[in-house]
Amino acid sequence: MLGKKLVTAQKRGETRALCLGLGMVACSMMMYFFIGITIVPFYTKSVWTTETLCKVLKANIKDKVFCPNCEGSEDEEIFPYPCLQVWVNLTASGQEVMLYQTEDTLEKNPKCSYVPDKLENSKEVKARIETIASNFKKYQTFPCYYDPGGTQTNVILSRLYPSQGLLFAFLWPTLMFTGGCLIIVLVKISQYVSVLSAWQ
């Protein structure tokens, strides 16, 4: 009687462990699919792939401009902000080009090097842009990214999805997939050993 209960409990435990392993594999596949349709296209679309050094030539704050391509900016008069323009000397080619914060900055407003995320408080936005401008004047040389193919003549300060970020995004689903497969293999080995012991 006790032996039957132990066998039943063992089978239940194996079934739960197998379901856990299959669930982990299924979740990792869903995460792979989500990363593949969201992050990977932005990474492959970016042409600013080569890192070099940029030297600041000038960093000026122009008059307030509007953000025509920002989300939720139907009424442009609500979202004026000072336009920071940073021009740098590209070490790789020696050209004088305009610097943008990320790839999105160029799409949102190609006239400005920096587009603030939150535009509600004009005083905070102005102070932030002035701080950024002073930092550029203070730190003259810094790493930046340019397009080696020459499609884009401008440069960006940082990529939205660098190689390290892409690898980190794939790390967790890979660990989950490996753990799920390991659980399934261990359950199958346990079942095989149980059947072999019963047969002997």
UniProtKB/TrEMBL annotation:
PROSITE patterns: PROKAR_LIPOPROTEIN. Its main location: membrane. This is KCMB1 protein. Coiled coil: none annotated. It comes from Erithacus rubecula (European robin). The gene is Kcnmb1. Belongs to the KCNMB (TC 8.A.14.1) family. KCNMB1 subfamily. It comes from the Eukaryota. One of its GO terms (molecular function) is potassium channel regulator activity. Keywords: Glycoprotein, Ion channel, Ion transport, Membrane, Transmembrane, Transmembrane helix, Transport. GO terms for cellular component: voltage-gated potassium channel complex.
